[in-house]
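TA notes, week 10

Several of you asked for a full example with nothing omitted. So below is the full record: structure tokens for the whole chain, then the designed sequence directly under it. When grading your own attempts, check the secondary structure regions first.
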């Protein structure tokens, strides 16, 4: 695959910021409740592909402008212009699942429908106390087919089924209880909590983090008997990695590791 670049690209439906080894992707269609149109989805997929190839990017954060995190698919099919190249066969769920880097959703408002793709396929999600989560497709005569793949990997099956069958919103407390988010916080604490988590994750062994998340994804589809020998192989490979060698040496020398 040709090496991706951000040079000369103008992101119109999202904003990108790379700082301190953290890439922040900000959904930037507040006038449309950050609904996902083709341009926004392409920009997200491109940004994630770029983050995957860049070793200096260790963590991705999803944020949003306005009062709504994301209203799901843009049913009005409103489009905007962008010069960000289109990637073949790109899919947000797969882009997130195969990124193999920490991804944090910073949820400042309601999450609806297709936005659950981003939340359920990220490694972490922190939401404000008054955020709501809903899969209202049934009320439009639709069904959240693509959402189910990620949703039922983080939410109990009966809870998830009731959630999508009735299409009623749940609050942050229930979303946390059901595993959809990690934590709910006061609105004024959201920035600090996400920044602290992202900084901590970015400070940890980067190659081991990527290696471990890849193993997590691959063992997830295996039976227990298949997973164990696969994971045994990964342990051996991990010990041979430079992160493990540096981490063990630093432990023995009683110093902080210097990840490169």
């Amino acid at each position: 695959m040709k090496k991706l670049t951000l040079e000369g690209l103008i992101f119109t439906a999202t904003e990108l910021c790379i700082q301190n080894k953290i890439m922040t992707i900000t959904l930037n269609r507040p006038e449309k409740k950050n609904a996902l149109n083709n341009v926004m989805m392409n920009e997200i997929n491109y940004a994630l592909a770029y983050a995957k190839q860049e070793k200096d990017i260790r963590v991705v954060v999803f944020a949003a402008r306005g009062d709504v995190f994301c209203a799901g698919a843009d049913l009005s099919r409103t489009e905007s212009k962008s010069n960000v190249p289109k990637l073949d066969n790109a899919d947000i769920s797969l882009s997130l699942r195969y990124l193999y880097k920490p991804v944090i959703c910073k949820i400042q408002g309601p999450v609806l429908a297709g936005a659950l793709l981003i939340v359920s396929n990220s490694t972490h999600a922190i939401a404000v106390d008054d955020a709501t989560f809903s899969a209202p497709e049934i009320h439009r005569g639709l069904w959240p087919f693509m959402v189910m793949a990620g949703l039922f990997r983080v939410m109990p099956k009966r809870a998830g089924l009731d959630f999508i069958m009735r299409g009623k919103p749940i609050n942050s407390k229930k979303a946390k209880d059901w595993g959809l988010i990690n934590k709910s916080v006061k609105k004024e604490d959201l920035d600090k909590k996400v920044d602290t988590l992202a900084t901590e994750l970015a400070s940890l062994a980067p190659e081991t983090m990527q290696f471990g998340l890849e193993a997590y994804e691959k063992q997830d589809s295996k039976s227990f008997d298949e997973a164990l020998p696969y994971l045994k192989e990964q342990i051996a490979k991990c010990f041979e990695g430079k992160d493990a060698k540096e981490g063990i040496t630093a432990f023995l020398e009683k110093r902080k590791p210097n990840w490169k």
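The mean pLDDT is 95. Use that as a sanity check on your answer.
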